[in-house]
Amino acid sequence: MNKENENGKPGQNVAGRFSVDLDKCIDCDLCRDIAPEFFARDDDGYSKIIKQPVSADELETCIEAMDSCPVSAIIDNGE
Ligand code: SF4
Fold first, then answer.
1. How far is ligand 1, taken at its centre, from the CA of residue 55, in Å?
2. Given 3.30.70.20, 3.30.470.20, 3.40.47.10, 3.30.70.920, which CATH number is that of 3-76?
3. pLDDT, position 38
4. Amino acid 12: pLDDT
């Protein structure tokens, strides 16, 4: 977890493979519904990554959330 998240600043993704583009997120709640362990709503109404996937099952869950995002706001930066 990076320092920004420890400080609870809004819109800060935990560093790692996945991130949310705040310029695209429309606060539809879908990713948080599919993968609540990894996505949370910040104070400004955008999703952010609160945990990066580790296991294969977790990765699959995050990819499902990414593929479900209606505005392609979830970014997979690769390994
Ligand atoms: S699914 Fe996409 S648009 Fe909806 S809250 Fe998540 S990141 Fe935002």
1. 22
2. 3.30.70.20
3. 98
4. 83
